[in-house]
Amino acid sequence: QVQLVESGGGLVQPGGALTLSCAASGLDSHYHTIGWFRQAPGKVREGIASMYSFDGDSIFASSVKGRFSLSRDNDKKTSYLKLNHLTTDDTAKYYCAARWGWVKSVALTEQNYNYWGQGTQVTVSS
Predict the structure, then answer these.
(1) Are 23 and 78 in contact (CB under 8 A)?
(2) Distances (CA, A) of 109 to 2, 4, 14, 98
(3) Residue 33 Cα distances to 46, 96, 102, 110, angstroms
(4) N or C of the chain: less Cβ packing under 10 Å?
(5) Residue 29 confidence (pLDDT) above 90
């Protein structure tokens, strides 16, 4: 059974940074994708970043490209989303999700993910 657990959210000032973690269990091969999504109050959930664990290929939404980055530790089965230059528009609940395989064209589409974490809140405020 696949389980994902996010951590690392919190309150940060505008311009600050955070690193979110997504610890996975049950993903017993590297042929899977970890996607990151966020949902702000009153808004639809948005796909923001995704990485294929096998080769590190990745994709970012335009809203975060150049500010957010992805990394992974395959030994720890943990993926990371580094959030830099945060603005109040980045305030949301952040989720990681997983699917088998990698299809870059739909990697930011939530319907293509089978497994979801519970989310972690990021609040950007002065």
Answers:
(1) yes
(2) 19, 18, 28, 11
(3) 16, 10, 6, 12
(4) N
(5) no
What is the spatial distance between Cα 77 and Cα 29, in angstroms, rounded to a whole number?
10
How many whole angstroms separate alpha carbon 32 and alpha carbon 9? 24
Token pair 């997983």 in the structure block, residue: 98
- 47 within 8 A of 96, measured Cβ to Cβ: no
What is the bridge-based pairing of β-strands 32-39 and 58-60?
Answer: unpaired
Average pLDDT over residues 50-74: 96
Please report the pLDDT score of residue 30 as a whole number. Answer: 82
| Helices and strands counted in the chain (H then E) | 0, 11
Count of other CB atoms within 10 angstroms of residue 119 = 18
Phi, psi angles (nearest 5°) of residue 76: -90, -5
Amino acid symbol at 78: T
72 within 8 A of 15, measured Cβ to Cβ: no
